[in-house]
Amino acid sequence: MAGFSSQVVAAFLLALPVVLAGSPKTCSNPQTSCKNTTAVSDLCCFNAPGGQLVQTQFWDTSPSTGPSNSWTIHGLWPDHCDGTYDSNCDASRAYTNITAILQSYGKTDLLSYMNTYWVDINGDDESFWEHEWAKHGTCISTLKPSCYTGYTAQEEVPDFFQKTVDLFKTLDSYTALANAGIVPSSSATYTSTQIKAALKSAYGFDITIQCASGALDEILYSYDVQGSVQTGLFVKAAPVGQSSSCSSTGIKYLPKSGTPVSTSTVKTTMTTSTTSASSSSTGGSGIFSGSGYLNAFTSGSQTGCLISAGTWYTSGTCATYTATASGSGFTLTSSKGSCGISSSTFTCGSGVTATVFTASGGYLSYGGSTTFYAAAVPSGSTQQTLYTTSHSVSVSFQWQAL
């Protein structure tokens, strides 16, 4: 750039969006945090000691924050598997420029979303984000810089905020409560049992609620994670050690001022975007039974499902599978025939020898692993073959009983 000073050139380069050069470590057959049966030394593929990741949401009314018909984000907290937690784990990474970091990585859409749904009660969103990152983000073991290949400075920051937002988008608390007749009101009151039951019905597991001055103001959703926060599978779980501060009766759910939004364009309800691994869907013993769908999950979010030939698809109608008990597990069939693993490939058809599968946490498991692989995430009319050996994309399949 002839004719420009070095300072001008440097400023220009800093203003350019940075393409993430690094990539999270590849994790082969990772164990699930808080559920591991053996010690795990590789903390880039296993979240510890903060093994239960808690997605927390606010309902602020004085003053009101966010849309009047949506909860807002508090954060993503790595709790120990007993309700305790570490905080402010790495002062050297307590960054004070979250907005600038996200902009440098081209995360303008993420920032726009955060400006609506991750907002500070005092109007200082940047300080709020800095606090959440420093206190909680720096304590997530799988987000350490050493867990990236070809690490680019601060690239763990967009990973943390993107994952938190992605989870929030699948947790429409406002709709879950409204579907049970629990709506904001200046006069009505509700019981703790009513609120928890409504949220559990949508989420599939118990949740934790918090109150301030007798009014509902916070919800905590718990996950265990199979693998890293960046690329692992977020498995819904019951809270471990967290306790509610709400009374049993007379809980207020006060209305917020402000403008409502169309939640269908920015969030999806829990019942449609994710599928709970409840005991009723797995026959109560971790074995799939009856008829159901096999929904695909990548990075904790649903991405299509299996169709009848045993291929992964993101368009069209999911195939109905029948699970039949066999030995210590079960076999699967679709309209094409029996399903099995042949030459490390999952397939269903009339000439296929049935494989006995097992289940873990509501997910299809083969050879002790719930992770399958594909060459890419399917798009449009393209289907992807599934493998049990490593390929570019990791995916797991959760059972949805019909």
UniProtKB/TrEMBL annotation:
<keyword id="KW-0963">Cytoplasm</keyword>
<dbReference type="InterPro" id="IPR036430">
    <property type="entry name" value="RNase_T2-like_sf"/>
</dbReference>
<feature type="active site">
    <location>
        <position position="74"/>
    </location>
</feature>
<keyword id="KW-0732">Signal</keyword>
<feature type="active site">
    <location>
        <position position="132"/>
    </location>
</feature>
<keyword id="KW-0378">Hydrolase</keyword>
<feature type="active site">
    <location>
        <position position="136"/>
    </location>
</feature>
<protein>
    <recommendedName>
        <fullName>Ribonuclease T2-like</fullName>
        <ecNumber>4.6.1.19</ecNumber>
    </recommendedName>
</protein>
<keyword id="KW-0325">Glycoprotein</keyword>
<keyword id="KW-0456">Lyase</keyword>
<keyword id="KW-0255">Endonuclease</keyword>
<dbReference type="InterPro" id="IPR033130">
    <property type="entry name" value="RNase_T2_His_AS_2"/>
</dbReference>
<dbReference type="InterPro" id="IPR033697">
    <property type="entry name" value="Ribonuclease_T2_eukaryotic"/>
</dbReference>
<dbReference type="GO" id="GO:0016787">
    <property type="term" value="F:hydrolase activity"/>
</dbReference>
<comment type="similarity">
    <text>Belongs to the RNase T2 family.</text>
</comment>
<dbReference type="InterPro" id="IPR057328">
    <property type="entry name" value="RNaseT2L_C"/>
</dbReference>
<dbReference type="Pfam" id="PF25488">
    <property type="entry name" value="RNaseT2L_C"/>
</dbReference>
<dbReference type="GO" id="GO:0033897">
    <property type="term" value="F:ribonuclease T2 activity"/>
</dbReference>
<dbReference type="GO" id="GO:0005576">
    <property type="term" value="C:extracellular region"/>
</dbReference>
<comment type="function">
    <text>Rnase which modulates cell survival under stress conditions. Released from the vacuole to the cytoplasm during stress to promote tRNA and rRNA cleavage and to activate separately a downstream pathway that promotes cell death. Involved in cell size, vacuolar morphology and growth at high temperatures and high salt concentration.</text>
</comment>
<feature type="signal peptide">
    <location>
        <begin position="1"/>
        <end position="21"/>
    </location>
</feature>
<keyword id="KW-0540">Nuclease</keyword>
<feature type="domain" description="RNase T2-like C-terminal">
    <location>
        <begin position="288"/>
        <end position="400"/>
    </location>
</feature>
<dbReference type="GO" id="GO:0003723">
    <property type="term" value="F:RNA binding"/>
</dbReference>
<dbReference type="Pfam" id="PF00445">
    <property type="entry name" value="Ribonuclease_T2"/>
</dbReference>
<keyword id="KW-1015">Disulfide bond</keyword>
<keyword id="KW-0926">Vacuole</keyword>
<dbReference type="InterPro" id="IPR018188">
    <property type="entry name" value="RNase_T2_His_AS_1"/>
</dbReference>
<dbReference type="GO" id="GO:0006401">
    <property type="term" value="P:RNA catabolic process"/>
</dbReference>
<dbReference type="GO" id="GO:0005775">
    <property type="term" value="C:vacuolar lumen"/>
</dbReference>
<dbReference type="InterPro" id="IPR001568">
    <property type="entry name" value="RNase_T2-like"/>
</dbReference>
